[in-house]
Design a protein that fits this description.
By secondary structure, the chain is α+β, with helices and mostly antiparallel strands. It has 2 domains: about 60 residues, no CATH class; about 45 residues, no CATH class. It has 2 helices and 7 strands; from the N terminus they run αββαβββββ. The strands form 3 sheets. A 3-stranded antiparallel β-sheet has the order 4-6-5, with no helix packed on it. Strands 1-2 form a two-stranded antiparallel sheet. Strands 3-7 form a two-stranded antiparallel ribbon. The protein binds flavin-adenine dinucleotide. The site of flavin-adenine dinucleotide has 8 residues, from loops.
């Protein structure tokens, strides 16, 4: 990330850290934000992780975006010693969320196994 930061900065990309929650408003064919009120943007790249769909819905209330189906994942941690030194992932089918067991050696010793997939009705309301 540091390297990426240095390269993009050299190419005149501006970074603003620790901003408050950003909101976007459609301004004819451009965008305005709650943070830089006097600036107009031609493009916005929405990369807000699990918040991305919420932001998209708020910016374009009449559009239909995919729904967020959030799940809670829990890991099992053990300090038991194994010979394993690498992370092992099960091959995944894109877009399919199902229970799987990843095995991750921890930097401070021990391993985590998981995550579980716990679906909750309360976390899946339309955002
Ligand atoms: C427990 C766990 C373990 C994982 N382990 C691995 C792993 O071992 N290997 C792997 O490859 N992936 C792993 N992942 C997945 C990986 O973390 C994600 O795929 C990746 O972080 C997604 O990156 P992103 O940039 O899309 O979103 P994020 O990393 O979620 O970044 C989104 C950013 O947007 C910011 N944001 C949100 N809303 C707003 C707003 N309104 N205004 C301003 N900023 C906002 C957030 O604060 C955040 O900084 C793991 C995920 C979890 C939860």
């Amino acid at each position: 990330m540091k390297k990426l930061f240095q390269i993009t900065k050299k190419n005149k990309v501006k970074f603003i850290f620790n901003i408050k929650k950003i909101k976007f408003f459609v301004n004819k064919k451009n965008f305005k934000t709650n943070i830089f009120r006097d600036k107009i943007f031609d493009y916005v790249i929405n990369c807000a992780g699990v918040e991305a769909i919420k932001i998209a819905n708020k910016t374009f209330p009449d559009s239909k975006f995919p729904r967020n189906y959030l799940v809670r994942g829990v890991y099992f941690k053990t300090m038991q010693k194994f010979k394993l030194r690498r992370i092992i992932y099960r091959a995944m089918v894109p877009g399919v969320i199902r229970e799987r067991i990843d095995t991750t050696p921890l930097l401070d010793g021990g391993y985590i196994f998981g995550p579980s997939v716990e679906k909750s009705k309360t976390t899946n309301k339309k955002s």
